[in-house]
Amino acid sequence: MSRLAEILKSRRQRLAELIDFPVLLRSGAFKSRNFPANTYPFRASSHFLYFAGLSLPDAAVRIEDDRLTLFLDDPKPSSALWHGEAPTRDQIAAEMGADDAYPLSEIATFAAVSDDPEFTNAIVKLRLIQDESAIAEIRKAIAVTVEAHQAGMQATLKAQTESQIRAAMESVILSHNMTCAYNSIVTVHGEVLHNDQYHHSVQPSDLILADVGAETQTGWASDITRTWSASGNFSPTQRAIYEIVLEAHDRAIAKIRPDIEYRDIHLLACETLAEGLVELGILRGNPADLVEQDAHALFFPHGIGHLLGLDVHDMEDLGDLAGYEPGRSRSSRFGLGYLRLDRPLKAGMMVTIEPGFYQVPAILNDPARREKYREAVNWDRLASFADVRGIRIEDDVLVTPEGSEVLSLALPTNLEQIQKQVKS
Fold first, then answer.
1. What is the mean pLDDT of the chain?
2. Given Cys at both, which of 46, 195, 294, 376 links 335, Cβ 3.0 to 4.6 Å?
3. pTM: predicted TM-score of the whole model, two decimal places
4. Strand-pair partners of 180
5. pLDDT class for 80, splitting at 50, 70, 90?
6. 228 vs 208: CA distance, rounded Å
7. At residue 207, what are phi and psi to the nearest 5 degrees?
8. Distance CA 335, CA 61 (A)
9. Which tens digits make up the pLDDT trace of 196-225?
């Protein structure tokens, strides 16, 4: 039995401990771009990948106990002209350790459930805790991502536009025969949280926020963010804010261990950010009270991170089912509404930690918020930090039985080391 087949069988066996009925998972199909033969790159459903291991278009697998049945049509003879010779259904079945293999049309002759709450909950329970194979794949993705960020830093001094830095980063990922796990964020406008524009010119006074992650050929993701100065030298105001974000990042990671509530880690980062902003004179008041009032969210509106696995925001296709402990729901609070993960941590969980500071015009210029936080914010003092649009520092962290392991530790967060990397 191949290593892949052993891994998949182990996952089926663990699934069989949670449900006692046959289930069906479909991989998905190619999507066309403008005309049928011009397709977007195919990527199978993550739930299919978890149990099938191979990104097969127009395929399905049936699982009953630890038995795996593959449904897949053999390639048409004409496809060899355009796509080359492809493995047969039986060859693919052997690679994944399937017990049987049939054409896709024969699915209807087999009983199976594809959409059942008990099955969905079982998938969540399994995928929340990463097995050794998954962790090994995520490590591979992270190693390439670290290299990509280093390339981006080194390309910055000669770059005229964001796109040139992005190209340097993504070329590393492509050179390892991997893909990007999500649309890269490489921007001088770090205040736009999911910025997908790359045309802006790069000025020496700018900060570059790069949120870029590789995905392995088997679908496992990484997610790392670093922020650096385009000139290699942070201004005093940029340095001051960066150090506050880094302190929030470091305190949050230090708190990670089994049974700790992820929400408490988020709140610790919020209070750390508030403490730093009070010291700088941007916020006024007691840090804990400011967090309770959501004043910190003026500058840190999102959550501290999320699950990581076969998706960069793992299992968020299921809404909050994976991210939130049963019985919990999202808060309506300004400072908690974007928290993506609210459950106690367990050994084997993979999470990101990504505090930030952003000056988002839509938030800071909102009349209602300006009035609400009139006493909490020293707006004149804030104006002196105009060269800090956005800073985020993000690492990928494995929860271990003893605490945690930062899998992306090879990429420095220390400001001096980052400056050295940019200038190298």
1. 97
2. 294
3. 0.96
4. 214
5. confident
6. 5
7. -100, 140
8. 42
9. 999 999 999 999 999 999 999 999 999 999
The pLDDT tens digits of the residues spanning 267-307 come to: 999 999 999 999 999 999 999 999 999 999 999 999 999 99
Note the residue count of the chain.
Answer: 424
Q: What is the largest CA-CA distance in the chain?
A: 73
Q: Are 226 and 393 in contact (CB under 8 A)?
A: yes
Distance set, CA 217 to CA 23, 129, 141, 267 (Å): 25, 21, 9, 36
Residues near 274 by beta carbon (within 8 Å), at least 6 away in sequence: 283, 287, 288, 290, 291, 295, 296
Nearest-angstrom CA–CA distance, 389 and 360? 8
Where does residue 85 rank: exposed (0-12), middle (13-18), buried (19+ CB within 10 A)? Answer: exposed
C-alpha distances in angstroms, 178 versus 146, 173, 185? 13, 5, 17
Can you tell me the distance from the alpha carbon of 98 to that of 52, in angstroms, rounded to the nearest whole number? 9
**Three-state SS letters, the chain:** CCHHHHHHHHHHHHHHCCCCCCEEEECCCCCEECEEEEECCCCCCHHHHHHHCCCCCCEEEEEECCEEEEEECCCCCCHHHHHCCCCCHHHHHHHHCCCEEECHHHHHHCCCECCCHHHHHHHHHHHHCCCHHHHHHHHHHHHHHHHHHHHHHHHHHHCCEHHHHHHHHHHHHHHCCCEECCCCEEECCCCCCCCCCCCCECCCCCEEEEEECEECCCCCECCEEEEEECCCCCCHHHHHHHHHHHHHHHHHHHHCCCCCEHHHHHHHHHHHHHHHHHHCCCECCCHHHHHHCCHHHHCCCCCCCCECCCCCCCCHHHCCCCCECCCCCCCCCCCCCCCCCECECCCCCEEEECCEEECCHHHHCCHHHHHHCCCCECHHHHHCCCCCCEEECEEEEEECCCCEEECCCCCCCCHHHHHHHHHC
Position 308: which residue type? L
Q: How far apart are CA 358 and CA 370, in angstroms?
A: 16
